[in-house]
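Quick question: who can interpret this fold?

. . .
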Amino acid sequence: MQFARMTQANQSGVAAFNARIAHHPSRLLFGTVQSSHDDSQPPQPQERRRYLAYDEEGTIRGGYLLQWQKAWLRGRMIDAASLGSPVSEGIIDPRFRALGAALLRDAAKRCPNLYALGTGGRNSGYFRLAKAMRWADADIPFLFHILRPTQFLRHAKPLRERPSLRALSSVAASTGLGQLAINIVQARGRLAIGEKYRVELVEDIAEAADEVWDRARSAIDFCMVRDGAHVTPMFPNSHKGLNRLVVRYQGTIVGWAVVTTTGLARVGKFLGECRPGLIVDTFGDLAHAPAIARAARDWLADMNADVALTNTSHSAWLSAFRQAGFLNYPSQYPLIASGEMSKLPGGLSNAIARAHVTRADGDGVHYLIDNEDE
């Protein structure tokens, strides 16, 4: 196999590849080339570069995407990249079964420090392949807060699919007992953000990101850089459904959050008729993390979301969300990492409590955009 970057001239070959694997859920999300690039030039923050695998006849047999970023690793910057959409014809043709590992090896030559989030869960071929290649892994905790208990009890698909739970949730919703019980469990979440805080909706959070990055990073052992140069392309203006919030305390910027209720089709299929809201990211001074978490939660409530969802790893942010009334649920969102990122002292899973990893990382918002119409 030969590997080369994708160009506009590859479009027909990618279309033919997708046609061959059309009955498999995987596909190359490379329908158009968003920008050309020269591999001899250093990538820009969040720049996405696509690479294809060709056989000796020039037929495309697979490919992957690198989204370049700077990572903050124990007090220093390193080059890193999110490895997205690695797929090979080995999923339908055993002749190409070894190509999956070759894709990861080629990506690691271009950027040794690779990571991915979600990966289809721990049972996916992608996750098992990365583990076989000795990538480190850790689960990113999942949290939820029921914003409209009656609506949730009446329509949440997981409750409606089991007869015993369906009857119980119907009674709880109609009598008001369910709302009372949920409010008791989420009691701390009723606390207001506080009069000294102000929340603003902005078009770009670069200014806020630059304001807090140098202060907040000292409490973090590992994360993708969240300064202004990185967060603007991380949350592109092309995604109109993103709400970018800046939180001030007595006039000073102390953090920011990004929330959305759009592009959540897959989550919606799991929840049924409940309307989900996603806290994509929160960042800022950890002393103000509880207020920032409440600000994100309240914004989703004002957008009529029935339930607020998020994934986050740092122990201080987990505490902040629990203070905002969020509850834990078993996570299906693993982080896998290679290179220096996999060699944190004590292992990645032990270091995750001082790592800041959220739904904004990896494919992040680009995944939401790519799947917005599903």
User: Anything to note?
Assistant: The radius of gyration is 21 Å. Confidence is low (pLDDT under 50) at residues 159-182. The first strand starts at residue 2 and ends at 5.
